[in-house]
Amino acid sequence: MTNPVQFIGQVRAEISKIAWPTRREVITTTIMVLIMAALCALFFSLVDLGLRTGLHALLGATSS
């Protein structure tokens, strides 16, 4: 078992190995995520609208 001082040293050594993204990479990936989220929201909204319209037409046709 390591003592707290050794543990902190090991943590610092591991953190120094991390390849941190650049500011440009963060902005680019953030924009891509926002665009994909908007496209998914639009797709599922259109699917929901189509299903709702189809069910409304089907149920309206059977109740009349």
From TrEMBL:
Residue runs in coiled coils: none
UniProt topology in membrane: Single-pass membrane protein
GO CC entries: plasma membrane
Key word Transmembrane helix present: yes
Transmembrane segments: 26-47
Subunit description: Component of the Sec protein translocase complex. Heterotrimer consisting of SecY, SecE and SecG subunits. The heterotrimers can form oligomers, although 1 heterotrimer is thought to be able to translocate proteins. Interacts with the ribosome. Interacts with SecDF, and other proteins may be involved. Interacts with SecA.
Keyword terms: Cell membrane, Membrane, Protein transport, Translocation, Transmembrane, Transmembrane helix, Transport
Record-linked InterPro entries: SecE_bac, SecE_sf, Translocase_SecE/Sec61-g
Sample GO molecular function, one term: protein transmembrane transporter activity
Subcellular localization, as worded in the UniProt entry: Cell membrane; Membrane
Principal location listed in the UniProt entry: membrane
Name assigned to this protein: Protein translocase subunit SecE
Domain of life: Bacteria
An example Gene Ontology biological process: protein targeting
Family according to the record: Belongs to the SecE/SEC61-gamma family.
PANTHER family with a match to the protein in the record: PROTEIN TRANSLOCASE SUBUNIT SECE
Function description: Essential subunit of the Sec protein translocation channel SecYEG. Clamps together the 2 halves of SecY. May contact the channel plug during translocation.
